Amino acid sequence: MRAGVEQIVQALLRDRNLGPCVTRHEVLEALPPRTAAFPEEVHPELVAALRARGIERPYTHQAAAAEAALAGRGFVAVTPTASGKTLCYNLPVVTALLRDPDARALYLFPTKALAQDQLAELQGLARALGRDLPAFTYDGDTPQDIRRRVRDQARIVLTNPDMLHQGILPHHPRWARFFGSLRYVVIDEMHVYRGIFGSHVANVLRRLRRVCRFHGSDPAFLLSSATLRNPGDLARRLTGAEDLVEITESGAPRAKKHLLFVNPPVIDPALGLRASAVGVARKIATRFLRENVSTIAFVRSRLQVEILTRYLKDKFERRPDRKGWVRGYRGGYLPDLRREIERGLRDGTIRGVVATNALELGIDIGQLEAAVLTGYPGSVASTWQQAGRAGRRTGVSAAVLVASSQPLDQYVVTHPEAVLGAPPELGLIDPDNLHVLVSHIRCAAFELPFEEGEAFGAEPLEEILAYLEEKGVVRRAGRRWHWIEDAYPADQVALRTADPDNFTVIDTSGPRPRVIAQVDL
Q1: DSSP structural state of residue 306
Q2: What is the pLDDT of residues 250-274, one digit of tens each?
Q3: What CATH code would you report for 5-31+256-420?
Q4: Using CA atoms, how far apart are residues 241 and 233, in angstroms rounded to an integer?
Q5: By three-state DSSP, how is residue 274 classified?
Q6: How many CB atoms neighbour CB 70 within 10 A?
Q7: C-alpha of 237 from chain center
Q8: Are 417 and 25 in contact (CB under 8 A)?
Q9: Which of 48, 55, 138, 352 is buried most deeply by CB count within 10 Å?
Q10: Which secondary structure element, helix H or strand E, spans residue 504, and what is its range?
Q11: What is the pLDDT of residues 140-167, one digit of tens each?
Q12: CATH says 44-247 is which class?
């Protein structure tokens, strides 16, 4: 008889080797759902389509978000993993598209995988509606012949900040129809936009608003995020929009969850050496998988993905009925392989996955029952994100954090309240950092001339333009500054600390070159 999560957790606690290593066992009790009626402004066809898909009533946070957006206000929705944040923005966006044939929406995701995931969701919604709602991804992989079709036909464009920065805003005249009718800008996974990346993205959004004003639109910003300490402040600094409704109370149900903190045993008291965190995580993941409990094991490096995946495959895939049960998942895999693994997790043919934090973001991977975190993820927010990958809305789940020998891990495992009782980290950006700001003023000048008296950030714009004029970048003519440099400035600005392009690994040792890996954003 298959043991459930509850029985496995109790067995771990009683285990003579692992039990003494558990420094904390916390139980989060189940919470019931809180729902509300669909706001009156939601299109009746959309309500009918959602009910046909089993959504009789939205959760309270979904209804509040839709109500704000349909009243013309932006919002930032900050609720836990798997709480249905997607419907927060799809309700108002699809309603607007059904009511106004000219309305357009732009969806921004930090990764291509998330954009593909949400495209599938929108296509499913369109099928349920029996309507044509042209939605397309637009990124570096989009073929040239498809790009014109996207510009001409798309009502929803799903892209990433890098492509908006390099491939869309500099060519905005080609997108005149789209920008002129842009009603909503959706920013998913807002918590990712922190530090230097967030500072760059805030300036890209300044440029976006500037281009929209030129084409006659003023879109509302709809943001969703994992838990942060300062979601409203980050959303306002990121978008420049002041009138944002903050939605922080989730109405989604929560299933019962066991949280365990595990410190590997000391194997050399004289040197203070502990057993490997990967080794202990392997034993715990094996316990869950042996009982057919769907499990995700997070590790800290690509090498650890391969090591732990190989062990678990050797352990479980000797039986013919368990072939393909365990897979690895990391950024270096080809995109098609990653999509295949995601599908396998959703349909249950894959029971275990070993992943880097590439699966920490909100890609739909279905219902998992156990999460094993190999090492402290580095922040309170990431810990809850990874733990939240197990236990969606029903059934008991477990999340086990196995500490490494690193000092921070040892502090967390001996002081679990540092995670359990602490607020999540602040999301901090500095869009007016002079180096970042000037690079985007150059990009903005390429896109449109600057007018006298115009503002762009907190620094005195005319002083920066005068400096750029001295450098031969712009020239003043009357009340305007025009771009004159023979360059494409967006190519000189990488939003992330690394180059945003794809990296392809090609094996040239055989008779024909063969692509064996690709890092995609």
Answers
A1: H
A2: 999 999 999 999 999 999 888 889 9
A3: 3.40.50.300
A4: 10
A5: strand
A6: 19
A7: 19
A8: no
A9: 352
A10: strand 503-507
A11: 889 999 999 999 999 999 999 999 999 9
A12: alpha beta
